[in-house]
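New here. Invent one.

***
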Amino acid sequence: MQKITKMAILVIVDFSDNSYEAAVQAAELAELLHQNLLIVHAINHYTRAYLSENNLDKEWIEESMESLSNGLTRGKEIDIDIVIREGSVYEVISSICKENDILMAAFSLKGKPGLQKFTPEKIMRMIAVCPVPSIVFPRKNCNKFSPMLFPVNLFRGWSKKAITLKHLSEWFGKLVIVVENHSSDKFVSEIERERSRFKEKLSILGIECAYVPYIGQGSFTNQLAYYAKHYKAGLMILMNDEEEESLHFKPAPSDAKIIRSKIGLPVLCVSPFMFAKDE
């Protein structure tokens, strides 16, 4: 993987099992990508209630964050910064992403929610406020992130998606497995034309791709699971449609189903417009 200018992977922590798992896997990814890690705690009504119930003061938060940081750096060559800020998790994530050079935000589905109730539903809402890509780690540890598995409808706009894949390839390698998420039986010539154009665009951008068809039997999530295993994929890429023109990734019900499935891949959620300024 290519070494890029140092930025930070952001992890919002509430000292629960699943935020700890997010921090552990984000630290592994930060070291792999030669980036920094930024661990953040949002002090809000959940925090204040917990401190009151357990007769603790704010120094406990600082000590807990320092302890987490020390554990994450053990045996690793990464720098970790700590931010403790008042506000809701949504406000804090959004403001810190805008104020700092954040590469991506990291979340995990592994482990039980705790202090601030980072349920899968709440994680989806946190993803929606991130102006940067969000990676959601599955319930198992990950040690590879390539090749990328990318479901796409080529009958919709894909120019900015191609540019986005170019940026992601700098982090996760040049091979993309393109999974069509619609049947092409009735539009054979049209889909062949779009495949050819998309492949040519990716080739110009230095990306190698392989197409796999929509099977049309069973659920699309099961098809993704099959292709993930068959191609030994390391990462799933989900992108908003370009027609939405949003700077944020907004998980649709189908996206949430894929993210929460047992496919076993980390899922990177990204809007094609996050990289528009770099075109």
User: Anything to note?
Assistant: The chain has nine helices and ten strands. The CA atoms of residues 22 and 108 lie 5 Å apart.
